[in-house]
Write a structure and sequence with these properties.
Strand content: over 45%
CATH class of the largest domain: Mainly Beta
Number of helices: 3
Subcellular location: Membrane
CATH topology of the largest domain: Immunoglobulin-like
Number of domains: 2
Distance between the termini: 81 Å
Largest sheet: 7 strands, antiparallel
Keywords: Membrane, Transmembrane, Transmembrane helix
Protein name: Late embryogenesis abundant protein LEA-2 subgroup domain-containing protein
Order of helices and strands: HEEEEEEHEEEHEE
């Protein structure tokens, strides 16, 4: 009888472990379900807010630009340049701040056919309903030869006589919008700025100066 009692006593911990294991599994499933429902609810709220507060695209303007050096050498296939542009990035959204995760800039000449420089800017953050200054500088030289040189020289001579040089400034952006604690998917609103910059050697062009220019921005949507 004692041995039978002892045998039963040994089975009790085993049953308890099974019940404990079953309870833990049930609790885990319950927590997973709650977490899934929570994520779905957050997604619905974010979608609703997105539909209610459709984000406006950033507004970019070139507010200043100067050419301290821009020379096409007659003895070599070399276009020397030092182009500086000051820009204004405007976030018109009351509900969204903006994270700029990638900011790349390129400068082009001759109707956008000759790239004279490129650079990468550090990541930036912009608060809601705010304006942020951005400055880029392209200093160096670009090799031009053969038929390309002839085409560039035609543009250069014509614009030199006019007193204004024309450039295309392009930005390639990757941004995320943030509302409260939720970040959006990535957007890539490319920016194009068409610049008319006075030549430093032309007095009348210097007097006319550089006119602030609104840039074309690809929409978020």
């Amino acid at each position: 009888m004692l041995s039978m009692g002892q045998s039963k006593a040994h089975h009790i911990p085993s049953t308890s472990r099974k019940r404990a294991g079953f309870s833990f599994y049930t609790l885990l499933c319950y927590l997973v379900k709650i977490f899934t429902i929570f994520l779905i609810a957050i997604g619905i709220v974010v979608l609703a807010l997105w539909l209610i507060y459709q984000p406006e695209t950033i507004k970019v303007s070139a507010v200043s630009a100067s050419l301290s050096r821009f020379n096409l050498s007659s003895s070599s296939d070399h276009l020397a340049h030092n182009l500086t542009v000051g820009l204004s990035f405007r976030n018109p959204n009351r509900k969204y701040s903006i994270y700029y995760e990638r900011v790349e800039a390129e400068a082009w000449y001759d109707g956008g056919n000759l790239q004279i420089g490129d650079l990468g800017l550090p990541r930036m953050f912009q608060g809601r309903k705010s304006t942020m200054p951005v400055r880029v500088n392209f200093d160096g030289g670009t090799a031009v030869a053969g038929r390309e040189r002839q085409e560039v020289k035609q543009s250069y001579d014509r614009e030199k006589a006019e007193g204004f040089f024309y450039f295309n400034l392009r930005f390639y952006l990757t941004v995320r919008l943030k509302m409260v604690v939720v970040k959006s998917v990535k957007f890539k609103p490319d920016v194009n700025c068409y610049l008319r910059i006075p030549a430093t050697f032309n007095a009348s062009a210097i007097v006319a100066g550089f006119n602030s220019t609104k840039c074309d921005v690809k929409s978020f949507s």
